[in-house]
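TL;DR need structure tokens for one chain.
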Amino acid sequence: MQYIMFTKHLEGLDLDEIIATLQRVGVQGADLCVRPGYPVTPENAATALPDAMRRFRNAGLDIPLVTTPTNFQTPDNPDAENLFAACGAAGVQYIKLGYWHWSPEEHYWDTMARVNDWLQGFAELAGRHGVTAVVHNHSGRSLGLNGSAAMQIVRDFDPAHVALFADAGHLSICGEPIDMALDIMRSHLRVCAFKDLVHTTVQRNGRAMPATRCVRMGEGLVDWRTTVKALEAMDFSGPVSFHSEYAGEPVPTVIDLAACDVRFINALRADN
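>> reply
TL;DR here they are.
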């Protein structure tokens, strides 16, 4: 497996600082957050992304995956063509798309039909530029909230163009047993996200509402031993993104916790 770190919670760091962070955490590259406010954005990707890749590779690192804004949902997005072209030119293989959600105002399968049309456009972009668009499973009202639902979205597409990004944390919230989920997704599984989640509540308008919270690996709902064993049994070698979504923590603490998560997985793999 190729370990990478999601750079969302390294906001405020420049590329040199991100590179130093990844080396300290013990990963081989970045799941690069390409969003406004970060060194590479959808708008500047044509020049900033190849420069970032050059600097990463000079440091012995890679950028196999970029994560777009959560509203990067349709191929007619004004930045879509440029971003896919920039990834192809820079050597970034995977592009994580935004999310589509179910709403009671529209029948589920009507929404799915629209998403299928959009993915046709993303597949054409991916084929033209030699990259792969990936759909990330996410709990809640996301159309791809677990393995079965995510496969409904991508199953008719060539996985060279449209594939799956399996998130162990969100699968633990509303997914199938993790080894079953990974087997369901297997034909299109190209990238994994590692994070651990727990159920919690938040106060909204004076009421306790269900929510989730990211915790250190091994302290949440994910069955990590089974996760690692299942991935190794299927010879999964793709990128594994340590999400390190410790929102509210200062960046130095996020870095420390990410390093702990990497050590946790390394110890588990050595013990399997």
